[in-house]
Design goal:
Helix content: 40-55%
Radius of gyration: 19 Å
Distance between the termini: 24 Å
Number of strands: 7
Oligomer: single chain
């Protein structure tokens, strides 16, 4: 099961990338070359972030493994999860020294319902 990012959050990254790109084009058309020419790098970074988040998912449950899909994602086997904590906007899954913090604010409401169902299936003790 895959839990995607919110669509609103994805498109915000795209708007920021386009804004930085337009600003960089404006700076290049002035004819002066200084440190502000490197602002276009920010635009490229935001475009890459947009495409990465659009192509991948925030969280994935596959074959008994929970995986976060960040640049340096974490993996925990569902059989090793000992403790689950639910705060206002976060779920914390702990397995020994490893821990995954799931931010519920970046997940769509429909996907959040699926996540809650999946976490109930794991029969965890909630704190």
């Amino acid at each position: 099961m895959k839990i995607p990012y919110q669509k609103k959050r994805d498109y915000l990254s795209l708007v920021v990338a386009i804004s930085w790109g337009l600003y960089a084009l404006g700076m290049l058309s002035d004819g002066e070359h200084n440190w502000k020419d490197y602002v276009s790098i920010l635009s490229v970074i935001y475009f890459l972030n947009f495409f990465f988040e659009k192509r991948t998912y925030y969280l994935r449950f596959k074959e008994g493994v929970v995986t976060t899909r960040k640049f340096f994602g974490k993996k925990i086997h569902t059989s090793e999860i000992k403790e689950a904590i639910k705060t206002n906007n976060n779920y914390i899954l702990k397995a020994g020294m490893a821990e995954i913090i799931i931010d519920a604010k970046v997940i769509d409401e429909d996907s959040l319902k699926n996540l809650n169902t999946k976490l109930k299936e794991l029969n965890l003790e909630w704190d």
